[in-house]
Amino acid sequence: INYLSKFSKLLRITLENARDKIVPLENEIKAIENYIIVQNLGTENLFECTIDIDSTINQKKLLVPPMMIQPFIENAIEHAFPVKQESQEISIRIKFDDQDLTCIIMDNGVGLGQAKVADNREKNSLATTITTERLEMLGKEFKVKTSISIVDRKVNNESGTLITIVLPYKQNLND
Fold it and tell me: Alpha-carbon distance 81 to 25, whole Å?
């Protein structure tokens, strides 16, 4: 019953967000938090997810496209921790770098190279491809710079993956 309740809440938030091209950042964060909750239900090794949003960001007034961050959280959960790792951590940081809205997603999993070997895959994930295409399209429409960078943290002698997304956004000046 608990799982169905949490899952229905996640589904409701996702469907509500999907109706609009842009949603308040707080709605997108709620969707991510609920997604993490559902993923942690019924598992022994819980994923610890921290979400840090710069204090200068008004989450009610900052509008972002929905489902730009969640696919990368899903990829981390599905691919970064193929073996039962004791500490499974994912951190999300959202901040402004000058005029760019930047989302940094970092996990302490096996890293990009090892995940591809473990999954026996050579292609980019469909989520990454679709999100990259959406970023390009929305960047043009919103007339803002967008980008996505995926780096294996092994280059810094660390474990895991670092994803940096420059998101399109608008400010809701009403309210």
Answer: 28
